[in-house]
Structure formats: structure tokens, C-alpha cells
């Protein structure tokens, strides 16, 4: 019974959103543009035995306000987490972010900074492979992106370990 009430409330909510969208001048409705666009998605190559891999991408919010990511998944991994790099005791550590808001404009996930962590990989990832990831957004959009596995270049950054 509670489930029915909840579903009803959700229907009412989506109805309200639709009414708001309908008030937008017709011109901007000609193409339903997604609010979030992914650019340059790639996964850093890891050894075949590695249980995890990092994914980098630029997420562009073309909307007027921030939108939250509510769920992340990939068929190649048991789970997907958002990790930030933080300095602790003189070392860079990864810290999982639980509330993920994408502000208007670009959010760049790049080596040495934030990344999406693909955890408990179900299969080895090879250079050139395309890794599908789905991001569910609070506005109802589902962003499906494909990240290409790229070879790792030696660099001075701290190794990424779990
Ligand atoms: Cu990580």
C-alpha cells in the first residue's frame, strides 16, 4: 500500500515537472537536449588481474542548475564509485563521494584528481576496449557513456592503489 502511495506521489511530481517544461517557449522544445553531456571518457589501463580501474571524463552540465547523480553502473564492474583525491598525512588518498552534484558547466574528472572507480571488475580490460557506464540523474535523465581503455603513460603521479 505504501508503495502505491509513493508511486502516486512520483506521478504527481513528474506531472508537475512536465507542466513546467511545457511552459518553455516552443522553440526550445524542438530538440530534447540532454542536460548532461559526457566528453572524452577513458579508462586507464590496468593489469588483467587488477580488481579496479579508474575512469576519467568531462561532464558538461548545459542546464541552469546543478543536478545530482543518483546511480552509477557498468556491466564490467560490480559497482561504480565517485572518488576524490585528498591530501592526508602528506599522501594522496582516495575518498568516496556519496552525494554527487554536477554544477553548471564542466566537471572534469582527470588523473590526480577525481575519477569514477570501477570496482570488482568482472572481466579484464584491454587497451582499445569500450567500457559502457550508465549514470542516472536526479532529473530523470540516464547518461550512457562509453569510455575507451587507454594505455598508461609513466608519470610522476602517486600510484593508484586499492
Ligand atoms: Cu579510486
Automatic annotation (TrEMBL):
It holds the Pfam family PCuAC. The keyword Signal applies. This is Copper chaperone PCu(A)C. Gene3D superfamilies: PCu(A)C copper chaperone. Transmembrane segments: none annotated. Residues 1-19 form the signal peptide. Keywords: Signal. The keyword Signal applies.
